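Before going further, learn to read the protein records used in this course. The integers have meaning only within a learned vocabulary of local backbone shapes. The record below shows the convention in full.
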Amino acid sequence: MITWATAFLDSTAADWDRTLAFWQAATATTLSPFRGPDDEFVTLVPADGDAFLRAQRVRSGPGGVHLDLHVPDVRAAADAAVRLGAREVAASDHVVLTSPGGFAFCFVAAYPARRPTAVTWPGAGGGTHTSLLDQLAVDVPAERWQPERRFWAALTGWPERTTAPGSALVPLHRPEGLPLRLLLQRLDEPAGPVRAHPDLACSDRRAETVRHVALGATVEAVRERWTVLRDPAGRRYCLTDRDPTTGALP
């Protein structure tokens, strides 16, 4: 049983400071003390509730996002994941794995935690709006879609929400109290590695976009129900019209 979920912002040394500065401001969080042999780990601590966003400075690679799943029995969960098609990469007090399509995730120990509430931001003209980073979208190239979709539903035990036949967006039903939803997204590209990006739910997407651009983000595309942006380190993420409290579309 998954009791908590944490999104990790993986960053190269060159992008480390701007990654932390941007996401602190974007999520109204503060930094915990740095930890690890080289101070390579840090938690972004919300004002309300418990943390579910962390950052890791990586030695190599382009950076990106990975997922930690908190479970009562790390070894048993990892063994079950391997039977479902995951590949185990490393093990200590936690286990590092990749999904069948190559997306990195970890099983780590469970602990009691409480989901934060949405952050209220001042808007133009004296109004306010709310937002909350509450979703990790798993981006799946077309050839990997069906195996990856089956894997994540079986791994988490979270049922798929009803969608239109052939939909490229399939959300999994998050249990009550967990901070992150999982959304499976079929990409137009035919092949390539599976990766992920964070999504924020917001009550006023236009106002939230203005706020993020002022913090240093750039807008990549505006869709009917979401806006695609890149943070100052080039990491793609989305602002969506979903309700920050329920996670659902209006």
User: Anything to note?
Assistant: The first strand starts at residue 4 and ends at 11.
